[in-house]
Amino acid sequence: MKTLLAAVALAALSTALPAAAPTAGPVPLGILSDAARPSAYRLDLTIIPDQERFSGHAEIDVTLKGATSSLYLHGRDLKVAGAVAKVGGKTIKAAFSEVDSTGVARLDFAKPLPAGKATLIFDYDAPFGDSPAGIYRVKVGEQWYVWTQFQSIDARAAFPSFDQPGYKTPFTVSLTTKPGYTALSNAPDVKTTKVGDLVRHDFMPTRPLPTYLIAFVVGPYATASGAAKPTPERKAPLPVRIVGTQPYKDRLDFALENTGPIVALLEKYFATPFPFPKLDQIGSPVMPGAMENAGADIYGDTILLLDKGASTDQKKTFGMVVAHELAHQWFGDLVTPAWWDDIWLNESFANWMGFRIGDEWRPDLKIWAGALDEGFAAMNIDALKAGRPIHQPIKTNGEIDSAFDQVTYGKGGHVVSMIAAYMGDAKFRDGVRLHLNRYAYGNATTEQFFGSLA
Predict the structure, then answer these.
(1) Is 267 labeled as catalytic in the residue annotation?
(2) For 166-180, what is the mean pLDDT?
């Protein structure tokens, strides 16, 4: 009888009390669950290059799929002083903890959040890196400079985030630094405000971007400003700026004179204007290659910043790499891979375009011939037992960077070239244009790209 009464009482109690909100579950070592989807970021960072750490205030608007008492996102080596969620006018405290060395983090809320819209707010500081990952700084001469490199998963070392390519949102950025310093990001600088002894730079909100294409550059840079002339696809001049450390102040003109013509050739191929409101081309002394941050490309100094006596080989490298990175502004930035297993297409297409458009820019340099050398180099790797398919599943964070190799660039570029030759140049180009039109400012998979070609 006691057992029966106890069972009845327990059943009544479980009916009367609401079920506990679910928790975040097992640590996701690859793609995050769909428990929360970001819709906008507001980032306010203080970056003083000669200090060892930077500080930030980050706000992320999210939509929660269901009620939850905890949530996974990303953050690596961030010292979070405070984290809260704002929901319906209420502020709920949260505890932030890094739960995996790849930068997976968890928020545990003081009380469950309901399904629907919320804003996650963080105050934090973090160390600068000394190599191209996250926010890094380098001393050149007697002065410190700061750049960022977020591809593939290093934005999480700069701000709490949902750091994967499938999430594209507007970013509203402000950077506070020393007076007289250059501060730039993906969008144009629209306002400067004195904040004590420092200056705050406010930038226009961006078009939807993934975290890995965001950029911050701060320091006592030398700059040269100009514009890409109007084209049939773009009626207004495009602001173009070349940015380098002070030792390169006399090597900005070549890039300034030749960036516009490459932009014009790409606009003609894609039949659409440059997708962003300005273009900064930035040199870094430690960048091993280049990075296609939307409206703010960063290159190794010797790729971008050439002197008047630059060799033919240096000019060939400039043409190919700049055409590659600027092609990404459409194929990669305007339309972004949905996940890292499709990065092969992103890089293979841009590599093909780098040789093609570079060759159109300066036919006398015979840049296209370099594609053969790269293809043969890729064959040497492809012949090994350790070789891999161009398109392979990426299941964990640790596998992502393996996709950035000669198989992707060299072999993949030739596969794109073969597809274009099989279809015919005009039909292939029209399929690319259709693809960019269908998925502009969004994401697309390899299958969707071939659907556009079909």
Answers:
(1) no
(2) 98
